Amino acid sequence: SIFGKRTLKSAIAQGYNCITGHDLYNYLDLRPDASNDNDHNDYTTKKLKSIFNKSILPYKSLCYNRLPREHRTVIVAHIIKNGYDKKCLYSLGTFPNMERWHWIKQFPELADEINNLENGPEIYPHIKEEEVNLQVNQAHKLGWDHGLNSYFQLVTETTPNNNKIPFITEKSLKPFAMLQPFIQYGPQDNIKVLKMYGYDTLDKWINHSYDNEEDDFKRLRMVLKEFDRLQAISDKDWTIMLEEMLEPLLHNHQLVKKLPIYDYTSQLIPILGKFVGDSNV
Fold first, then answer.
1. DSSP alpha helices (H): ranges in the chain?
2. DSSP symbols for 9-24
3. pTM score, whole prediction
4. In angstroms, rounded to a whole number, what is the distance separating the alpha carbons of residues 51 and 241?
5. Looking at residue 4, what is its pLDDT?
6. What's the whole-number mean pLDDT along residues 208-221?
7. DSSP state of 92
């Protein structure tokens, strides 16, 4: 993640955010001569051809959920209840010898689906890739076949409700590498942090207003509402939208292959100002 434990503890104690991400980019390993580079280049060629040809894809969306945390069980329950399971590539893992976590009290309309999922088996995407085991962290894995067969991603970040400050993992970067638009359930202001990194979040086509919502459950409902809207867009309209998005998608695709360069001035000035004020210099 972008926060080490010591950095996160210090940031909370001092009331400011320290955001770094150099190690984060090593997960995807997409830089030239890196282990994923050839596969990524091959994928890029195929994805661009698909966009230029306005190819109709068999699935609307892609949603990875390895560890079955509360929000992920709710999201998969929503997918199943609304009949998106036939048009969504989604996964949901299990905890060893544990029930799946859930927010059944906060989402009572999904109670039946959550109860069925609570002790259910592992769920793999309809297109199951070889050598993928949901008991093993997939941080370095990119689902090329999944990206080629779906239009957009619903990213489910690791701890959307445990941190009151942005928290980014490699999950947020995968749509950029896969030339896909996305929505995300993460902590408040995660989208703003991605913009700070220089990414285009495709606001012309995607409503990320959920990023401003402080309440975790309201924010999830807003994400699911936008997911419903995007899922309802016709295949033909999606092909047109992807062609319209091509320039920012390519911008993100190139940026994710580079280590970020940060200007910390905006973060350091208020910290130094507070220090000077406290010391009466």
1. 5-14, 37-52, 70-81, 111-118, 144-148, 174-177, 190-196, 216-232, 235-244, 246-255, 265-279
2. HHHHHHT------TGG
3. 0.85
4. 9
5. 44
6. 96
7. B
